[in-house]
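Q: Given only this backbone (115 positions), what sequence would you predict?
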């Protein structure tokens, strides 16, 4: 059995090439502010695909809304919380799907009472 890693890592140079509007100074600022947290691989920063998506969003927020590092940190924290909540809801829905119909119906009724 071969060990296949599905995680791709990107160097700083590759990140800068993948996000053309990103400058080395801006990237360093995001990392220094801990808004983007690359891993360390072979004593170098190793960015993941999720980091690229975060950097794209950070560039959008910086350019369109002129947010500073504190504002960016706050927005990304809220985005992270939203993703966690969505993951939790999916887990609850998956668990409920395995329950008998009468349990699902009773829980569904309780949920609609709160609306």
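A: Predicted residues:
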């Amino acid at each position: 059995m071969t060990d296949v890693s599905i995680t791709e890592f990107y160097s700083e140079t590759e990140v800068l090439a993948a996000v053309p509007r990103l400058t080395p100074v801006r990237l360093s600022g995001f990392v220094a502010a801990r808004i983007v947290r690359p891993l360390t691989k072979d004593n170098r920063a190793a960015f993941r695909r999720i980091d690229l998506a975060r950097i794209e969003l950070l560039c959008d927020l910086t350019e369109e809304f002129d947010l500073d590092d504190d504002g960016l940190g706050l927005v990304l924290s809220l985005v992270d919380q939203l993703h966690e909540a969505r993951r939790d809801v999916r887990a609850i829905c998956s668990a409920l799907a395995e329950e008998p119909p009468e349990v699902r119906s009773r829980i569904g009724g309780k949920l609609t009472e709160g609306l």
